[in-house]
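Task card 7
Instruction: Convert sequence to structure tokens.
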Amino acid sequence: MSGMLEIKNIHKTFNPGTINEKVALNGVDLTLKEGDFVTIIGGNGAGKSTMLNAIAGLWPVDQGNIIIDGVDVTALSDFKRAAYLGRVFQDPMTGTAATMSIEENLAIAARRGEKRGLGWGVSKKEREQYHELLKTLDLGLEDRLSSKVGLLSGGQRQAITLLMASLKKPKLLLLDEHTAALDPKTAEKVLKLSDKIVSENNLTALMVTHNMKDAIAHGNRLIMMMEGKIIYDVEGEEKKALKVSDLLQKFEEVSGGEFANDRMMLS
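Output:
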């Protein structure tokens, strides 16, 4: 069965042949079925964000293929791939235009990929739609449609970015440590919202996180990466039953060493 995302034998080395050579992806194979919500964990430099960047097309891969819903996008630029993808980054400032209002930001997302002139006025119908959409966030933003996004808190901005990333029902939603810059309470809210958006829209999603508890608590499948490879892949009931200690043990088995990423241990 073909999946919503197929990654076939992806390789990527940065600065090849120099003293700074870094093998970032070393033969990654991964297939996501439609509706899969996969969490990705691993130490620093394991290849988690590099894999997301490869899917998004930020640079060409050295070898292998990336197929989204049956379309081979390996040779497409990030701009051309944008039609298939929604993405939320770690920095709450990245996904929104700070000097524009909430409704203008949502309108930009809603019109992505459409050929149009400069008719950027937000219609009454759109405004009503955004009002209802923001209400579901439960952050009081529905009455602040004309507020500049730059005035919002990090959590509010990530919530808006999530809405923007999912507005056009992308084939694939990429969440790159999208709660790492938020305080724990806000992070929890944004994660709940992520779950809701993924399940209600039946999206296929990949979420990179450094928090093992979050990786276990969210999604239906978990993969662990190390040295540019996937070393563990678990789903369904088996994933639900996981404990952080199981993940640490798995990592030590495969790596033959202690798990040495403080950031992951502390979270």
